[in-house]
# Entry
Amino acid sequence: MRSSFVALAVLVAGGLVGAAACSSDPVATNPDASTTTQEAGSDETITIGVNLALTGSLAAFGQGEQQATRVAQQQINALGGVLGKKVVFEIVDDRTDTSVSKPNFEGFFGRKLPVVLGPTGSGQAPDGQLIAKAAGFPLISPSASTPVTTNAEPALNRFFFRTAPSHALQAKAIAIRLFKGFGPAPAPTDAGAADGGAPASGSCRKVAIVNQDDAYGNPIAAGIKETMTALGGDAPVVIKVPITASANYDAEAAQVVAAKADCQVIVAFPAVGAVYMRSFKKAIATDTSRDWSTFVSMGSNGLKSEDTLVKGRDNPADPASPTSTEGMYVMNFDLSPKTPQANEFKNVFDVTTGADPKADLPGYAANHFDAAILAVLAIQRAGTVTDGTKIRDALFEVSRPPGTAFSPAKLADALVALRAGQDIDYDGASGPVNFDDFGEVLANFVVFKVETGKFAEVKAAGLTPDDLK
# Structure
């Protein structure tokens, strides 16, 4: 018997679900949530608010998350909805701007919507968390990973959740990978012993950090320095730069050269990171104080974007043009885990959105799909759209053991089990998404290297949650 997820993909391919979604089941997009008067829903629908960065610096991520909203809504409503009602996801754009996201959240929570999804960016998360806490309804972000939110509310008695891991975990992963290196350990001597315990090739003991001076860059930079120091290394220089890109970073690159570090980490988004790397490459081209061929540059997850490659090119319009990011490593959460659950979601995502089956999923699309599914499962578990605390508690219950495990392909069975009062454990498209007491999840990390102007995965450099203990 075919799963409900695969069956839905067949319906979408035949145009049945797509037609229904366009005519009577739209993914609503409202540019100004504060002007909407609809409450949590109507006699026929349940409304869930969605605040994403559809424009601005994180638009590439927010637009992928918007597509995942469409997939989730069609999946849920094709199975009869939740609590006997269809679900409408009302999407607004925060333009990657806190001055816009704050009134968006105030509008959603002021209407007492049962769950709100978002934001895309870390900078918009702290305000959203405060507003959610005051309203007493949960907020689930698919990608805002700032560690600032972790301790802003107590364990269990909190309303901010996320389906992507915290940047505190990313910072730890970056430091561990740099410290351990990218190549094999030195060969044993003739006596059979390693040469004094020398580090592996490409390893780093002194790291220079260049980071955006914001809620994204500062916590990651601090975490890298803390972990590197704990491992026995050092971060002799930490350079903060504005989030708005400068024409060049010649002064900052000169500081890194002078620091005599073994490696550097750039914690930034494409507009800043690509321009900085251009200045750095220019600086080392004329410096003869050392062999720069062994120097390692690593970017944070914000640089794992085609935009980084484009902005780094001498001629942005020419894919064959040399790029300033050539040779740079980038670490990212594993946004496309090779699991049956991920493959199931990829298939239905491609059919629903018309995406190229050979292309990777948009960044955080799977995380956003999981956030949407967990929201509706929690509403079903709580049996209410008006009691935010019960919905919050249900989010913990449906996301983690004990309970019968259900993948995205078994959503119909999960809803049946919940209606029968059974305990479930949703295993998502992005991973297990087991919320801990702080609403956090774990993930694998993957490493890429820019080679001939493209990202190539360095499979041996990846890290699992066990590697981070």
About this structure: The chain has a mean pLDDT of 88.
